[in-house]
Amino acid sequence: MEAGIQAVDDDRDQLGTFVAVVVGAYAFYSHNTILETIALFGGVTCFMQRRALALLEDEPAWAYDTDKGHKGFKDAGPSPQQVAADKAYQAALKRQQKERDEQAEVDRILGKIREKGMQSLSWREKATLKDATERTRGKD
Question: What is the pTM of this model?
Answer without folding.
Answer: 0.43
